[in-house]
Amino acid sequence: YNPGRAVRVNSAMLAAAIKGRGGRGDGRPGRDVVFTLATRDMNLLALQSQLLGAQILGLENLVVVQGDPFSERDLARTKPVDDVSPTGLIAAIRALNQGLDFRESQLRMPTDFCVGATADLGRGLEREAKLAHRKVLAGADFLMTQPIFDVAEAEGFARAYHSATGENLDTPVFHGLQILEQDGVIFSSVPQEVRRQLEEGRSGVEIALELYRLFQASGLHNIYLVPPIRRGGARNYAAAREF
Predict the structure, then answer these.
(1) pTM, 2 dp
(2) What are the E-state strand segments in the chain?
(3) What are the tens digits of pLDDT across the range 193-230?
(4) What residues contact residue 226 under an 8 Å CB cut-off, 6+ apart?
(5) Which of 46, 70, 51 is nearest to 11 (CA)?
(6) What sign does the CA torsion over 92, 96, 100, 105 have?
(7) DSSP-derived 3-state class of residue 47
(8) Angle at alpha carbon of residue 221, lines to 35 and 207, rounded to 5°
């Protein structure tokens, strides 16, 4: 959703285009898609109106994020809205699924969204575990982590969740697995050993495959793949296909 605060096609509209053009040729609909919705740019009225439009377009799955903060240069041209927190928007979507808008007015029919929330394990496992619990209580159906490079982080997150809440983390968690390349953009902390391997010329795909096997061996089967991200935002999808 507007990565790097750059102007890009609206995520829900692009998701609808992908789904509409991705038919399998056998009469069945196209690919399932997940779009991202940020709280930074619209108030709750606009967010819920967009969600109703997304539902009409056949979209069922979304991830709620806050959105990258604007830089000082950006703030000279625009300003954030932040009318609602991600946790608050998740709760508002749950209300839509029950047929109520933010004013508790009855909709003609309820929505049917499966809503995801994010977790950044690099900001501290205990902190993120408590925040994730609040998002689950608000109505999150699944969680997605920023890319991680150490299986122990995922296991530690589950333990921190139980310690903070007294409950097991039963909500599905999709762990980010990023393919790296030299001079690429990285959103997480990368172990020094992985950086060394990249600098010595080892393929980012090979490194990612090795990490993937470690995930599998640890019973962590819910993975989403992040292609190498280049300066300016372009993605190396050829590396994703190779993986």
Answers:
(1) 0.90
(2) 35-38, 61-65, 114-119, 142-147, 173-178, 223-226
(3) 988 999 899 999 999 999 999 999 999 899 999 999 88
(4) 147, 176, 177, 178, 179
(5) 51
(6) positive
(7) helix
(8) 90
